Amino acid sequence: MTLRRGPDAIPRSLFLLSSSLVVVWAVLIAESYLIASGESPDHMMSLGLLVIHIGSYWLALQIAGYPARFLQTVTASAICGAMISVLSLVLFLALVPVLGPAGAGSIPAVLQLWMLMVDGHIMARAIEQPLLVGIAIMLIVFFAQLAFYSAY
Questions:
Q1: 141 lies in which domain range?
Q2: Domain assignment of residue 109, yes or no
Q3: Domain for residue 7, yes or no?
Q4: pLDDT in tens, 33-48
Q5: Residue 81 to residue 147: CA distance in whole angstroms
């Protein structure tokens, strides 16, 4: 039953949102240092990807007519993103000695694909649409982030 609850189950808290966004950004930076193997990570790239993600939630909620759900929806996504990112980093570090950097690098990729489904669920619940609509919106956001990443 708890897994079916939507972002409305998250408290409306600016502190919770900002702290979860800080954790997500910190883990993204840590991943870029550890997974990129010595390349200098671009912190602004991580921030840009987060801005695109948050902006997409704002835009979708505005279009769907639920702007009041923005804070809780983004908080739900950020909390899930923080948990999945931490899990991804821990699994990567644990599996590098066993699988090597290339093999262990597939674990974060698989978890990020799962995060698309989680974000799709959050979006679908926030705009009161079927799950496939939420997943489709998040796929559009994913490709927008990919285009930003490629262009930058």
A1: 13-151
A2: yes
A3: no
A4: 776 655 555 677 777 8
A5: 20
